[in-house]
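From the shared-data thread, chain only:
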Amino acid sequence: MTNWTLVAVLVLCTTAAFAQDQKQDTSPIDPNAPLQPLDTAPTGGNANKPPVGAVRGVEMPFDTQSYDPAQVTPDTNTLAGAEPFTLGSLQHTRNTFDPTITVSQIGQTTPGKGGQTVLTGVSVASASLNFNRNWSGYHFSTVYNGGETFNLGYGAASGFFGQTAPHYQYHDLTVTQEAAWARWHVLLRDDFTATPGAAFTSQGMGGPGLTSQFSSLLGTSLNSFGQQFQPAETINTSEVMRYRNSILGQAEYSFSRRSAFTFSGSYGLLNFATTGFFNSTMVGGQAGYDYLLDPSDSFAILASYGRISYTGTGISSTGTSTIGTGNSVQDYVGALAYGRKITGRLAFQVAAGPQEIQFTGAGGVGDFHTLFVSINSALTYERRRSGLAFSYTRGLTGGSGVFLGATSNTFSASAHHQFTRSLTGGINAGYAMNDSLPQAGVATTKFDNWFVGANLGRRVGQHVQVNFNYGATEQNNPATCLVASCGGTGLQQTVGLSINWHLRPAG
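Structure, as tokens:
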């Protein structure tokens, strides 16, 4: 698994493409004027700007200066693309190499057997890297966060998770390569995660409180590509190592300054290191046509297809086993989308349409199909010292290793504020509701969970920042666990202190 992921990253790292510098056209569009074609052989290093493209969103690194929208490169994402609208990119205007070393000490309360609460200590040693390189029109970026977690007494305490390893690692890596020329824009991206818990609630990564201080660097589900392009991890299980990898390829062709066609294809997998869970692989494709109504507003029509295949065996708490191998689920979606964006200030989009889900069963699981309503929406708003973001997705997911497919409703939100030049704060939260697919003669099973994380950081000198964080999460489980071990019910809380050292001085 590790070798396969490294090969994928190396392929992305060596990808080269030609790109042209583009400038945002902020002049009004005359609806009666004829549309001008794009330059097929641009001169002076600039082509007519297509209405869409693919760039990473605004990131808030260690720099403590007030956010300035005038420094943001305009976002040109498509409504029909895999990545959501963003406010724009600060990192397309400069090269960045910013490694960070972090040491954290966390106190953690976990519900144990008999209603008792187990108090343990967790130490985390981690490192992160934010790297961006722009040269001759190329744009390459790598974002990484990973470390080692040491449990002090947690393995000896028989809570609902059972025995836990005294230490384990986690890794989160995103590699992106972009290319553009004349009418074409191409994006290649690889996302890899290895954690002992569900990525949605940051289980095994220090919890949502510790993760909130990295959310601006790493991006949350608000800034990653859509739910239909990557395996879901929105159900907590016991602390079992799992590996998730998603590869995305996207190509866009601009017919004119107002219209473009975008096609995206993806491959993803979710594998557990132990038996008793469902492993899955997924392939997907999406195509759509975007039309720019004015400099801020656009709409699109899009269609997508996905297929999820399963292996492994689920073993319930009552000893009943379900064979995953041979089962698969596929879906077809048609949707209309609307988007509005103001560079550096506002980004909003929503897409909705019917979704047909078809399940092909094996090992005693019958075939069936159902109709569903798919929704994908996101909102980001930014001011000079504060900002907020929100997203909501509804549709088919892989089941997080617990279900053979699920219909999921997922909410994510975050906010941040800069109180002074040295003091910043942030909060992130999420809620996920997962229902098993409605098989004939079998009642559906439901999991729902929520999390909230808060962080307060103060800069000390030019390279060091001290952060105080708090996190809480809770999951409601059905009466019978469908796999080897589910996360237990009850409130889990973390309180911690972390010290970050940055190579790059604060501005």
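The two ends are 40 Å apart (CA to CA).
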